[in-house]
Amino acid sequence: MKKRRIGVFVCHCGMNIAGSVDVERVVEQIKDYPGVEHAEHYIYMCSDPGQELVRKAIKEKELNGIVMSNCSPSLHQTTFRKLAESEGVNPYHCEIANIREQCSWPHTADKETATRKAISIIKAVIEKLRRNISLTPLVVPLTKKVMVIGA
Questions:
Q1: Does 147 fall in a domain?
Q2: 148 domain residue, yes or no
Q3: pLDDT tens digits, residue range 100-120?
Q4: For the domain that residue 39 is a member of, what is the CATH number?
């Protein structure tokens, strides 16, 4: 298995995350974690300039794994997996650390707890990514015919 070169991208989500999580401290703690080749934060990672930061890091650091630390996977997982795939990274090596719903929102009054929890969640996602096997989508040809038995 090829050594995973991971980039971690922490989104401020405006003040949704940055208001409760010390994103600069998160990046500082994560940048030297095993397997992490790149870590940075930005105000809106889902924006065009934010996505451009990810593209640039993938190319410059030859990343083959991405951890997006932002909001719910249901909101942006497809966005970032498509971005990864467009840059030659297996889309299943792009993982979401949901630090908005799991850290920022439940701990709005306790920045220290929210920050420590964000660091823990991101480390867990990094560990998952380091151990992921490379999946490839399977294309199965379908026949557009049906047969009804009984009725």
A1: no
A2: no
A3: 999 999 999 999 999 999 999
A4: 3.40.50
In a domain, 141, yes or no: no
* DSSP 8-class letter at 104: I
Question: Helix 48-61 crosses helix 73-86 at what angle (to 10 degrees)?
Answer: 50
**Structural domains counted in the chain:** 1
From CA 135, how far away is CA 40, in angstroms rounded?
A: 27
Looking at the domain assignment, is residue 116 inside a domain? yes
Q: Which positions ≥6 away from 39 have C-beta within 8 Å?
A: 7, 8, 9, 10, 27, 30, 31
Question: Is this structure's pTM higher than 0.90?
Answer: no
Q: Which amino acid is at 94?
A: C
Contact, 83 vs 91, CB < 8 A?
no
